[in-house]
Amino acid sequence: MIRRIREYAALPGGFGIICGVSMFLTITILGFARPLFIPYAPDELVGDGLAGPSWQHPFGLDQLGRDMLSRTLAAVPADIGVAFLGVSIPLFIGTLIGILLAFAKNKVFLSLVGSIIDGINAFPLLIIAIAMVTFLGPGLFNVVIILALMNWARYARIARTRAQIVLRENYVEAARLMGYPRRRIIFKHVTPNVSSETLAYALSDFILVIVIISGLSFLGLGARPPAAEWGSMIADGRVFLGEAWWITVFPGLALCWSAVSISLIVEGLSRRDRAS
Amino acid sequence: MKVKSTSPLARKIFGRTIRAFSISFWVMVIAFALMRVTPGDPASARLGAGAEQEAIDALREQLGLNANPFQQFINYLSDLSRGELGTSLVSGISVGEIITKTFPLTLTYIAFSFLFAFLISIPIGVFIGWSNKASWVYSFRTFTSIVIATPNFFIAMVAILFFSVQRDWAPVFGYEPGFPGNMRYLWLPIAINTLILVSIISRVLLASVVDTRSEEFVETGIIRGVSRIRFFWFYILKPSLAPTIVLMSYMMGTMLGATVILETIFSLPGIGRELVGAVLASDYPVVQGILIFFGVITVFLSFIGDLLAHLLDRRVKL
Questions:
Q1: Contact predicate A276/B150, CB 8 Å
Q2: Which of B150, B154, B274 to probe the A interface (max A CBs under 10 A)?
Q3: Residue B27 is nearest to which of A119, A231, A252, comparing CB atoms?
Q4: Do the chains contact at B29 and A119, CB–CB below 8 Å?
Q5: Cβ-Cβ contacts under 8 Å, A211 against chain B
Q6: Closest approach of chain B CAs to the CA of A256, in angstroms?
Q7: d(CA B293, CA B284)
Q8: Is residue B287's pLDDT more than 80?
Q9: What residues 270-289 of chain B have any CB closer than 8 A to a CB of chain A?
Q10: pLDDT at A22
């Protein structure tokens, strides 16, 4: 096992990928296993407000006296979990629509869906997400809905371009000549080749989506107050920046840790692509 | 018989212009649809649970929600064509006026950020790309990917902690108009934006410099012995600039989005803070107006970026 990891790390970009994956697994496992080793609940008042880091509470206490370590880890499902939904739902919808568009023949349908995709992509994602909060109301559940409604268009554009190229490849032509049904060509021949491209984009999109979720919460438009979420904890700490830096810094570091772990993976994968 | 029009370049520019206008039209359609398609009645949401039916009806009338959807859409387009974006439900000021009042500040510090980022990225990208030393490139890419992955509001909080709380180099928040005075409040947001932009722009520039490096004309330049400055400018930088320009025009739009958060942190009275305020107050006409404004601006920025890139490098497809 260890030898295989070492061999993998020696490949171009392998070291970055291993670092990224282990960083990401560390925070995810710590986050989900939190109740097993931290005796304080994230919303339990355990001491005086604004008490600094100590052996008992390594990350200090927030303005209400809640344990920051517990809260920082409790935010993992809110941030990474919601980001996972916010990436995988658009990934699925977008890839499917993109492939269908590449197959579609109807001119009116094509230009209509194409224009909607271009129109949605014209807005900066954060701006349209903020605007949609006005209509749907704040809350993490609504953030997932907003991302599902708005983020698929970027995947659809990538998938369509890729699928158009794949459709011209010889192996698809061969499958057609063999008389395979259309559904088999779509799912067995086109989809795997298109989804490798959209999956690669999904990985870098994950960083963007985490930043959007925490950014919305930072503005008070995402997670609602008692819930632990990195962006809203950073916003809480803003007022106490002078006397209690730990309220802002630890959730921020957790946020960076997760985003950097993904970007190490992305970086490593692109290095490996360039090398081959 | 089809008449062959003028030069292919003019035709391409014409086609791209048409495309920019058609996307802008769809931007307006989407901004219109969002408010009507989403569940819940905007008027009762704005007035709260205890509102009387008459007040809700009056507000619906004011927002033009009582007509049938098709008629609403016609009214909306005719208002837009006259430059009418509606009036704020909170202050009663027209949305156009709100935008012209708040946008200049946002534009000022975004323009400064891009100027500085461009000036700093060029030497970094050209020299690290030209040296193409694996260890430099790798540590550069690692550093920039960390900066890019860090949310701007966290960078802002750490910067405030160091420059405003511990040392008194920048005010924690606030703003005062007028040129020399406002820089005291703007330098920190500009520096943060510049740091993020430099990381993004110089990465792309570096990648294209590395590509350019292996082209044959570069070797010709070395053999011909052109002067150092001429060499770096005409043989290395100019052919590598096109992707950077496209990226910058695209980043302008994304930056506009990111300013929303920075303006809220630094309490700058720009368009981003106006948007957040309008969202919190359920001020629909303002939200819709700013949304259209952002969408259309992004479309035209990317249009201009494509044109510039095309002029710099004719190989770029319009």
A1: no
A2: B154
A3: A119
A4: yes
A5: 151
A6: 5
A7: 14
A8: yes
A9: 275-276, 278-280, 282, 284, 287-288
A10: 94
| DSSP β-bridge partners for residue A45 | A66
Q: How far apart are CA A190 and CA A169, in angstroms?
A: 10
A127: nearest CB among B23, B165, B291: B291
Would you say residue B116 has pLDDT above 90?
yes
d(CA A20, CA A33): 20
Does residue B3 have a pLDDT over 60?
Answer: no
What CA–CA distance (Å, rounded) separates A112 from A129?
23
Residue type, B203: R
pTM of the prediction?
Answer: 0.87
Binary contact (B260, A259; C-beta < 8 A): no
Q: Which of A250, A241, A255 is nearest to A212 (CA)?
A: A255
Are the beta carbons of A148 and A90 closer than 8 angstroms?
A: yes
Residues 6+ apart with CB under 8 A from A114: A101
Which contiguous run of DSSP H or E holds residue B30? helix B8-37
Cross-chain residue pair A124–B294, CB shorter than 8 Å: yes
Ordered alpha helix ranges (H), chain A: 2-10, 14-32, 34-37, 68-76, 82-103, 107-122, 125-136, 140-167, 170-177, 182-184, 191-218, 230-237, 246-275
Q: Inter-axis angle of helices A82-103 and A191-218, to 10 degrees?
A: 140
Nearest-CA neighbor of B27 among B294, B304, B301, B255?
B294
B160 touches chain A (CB under 8 A): yes
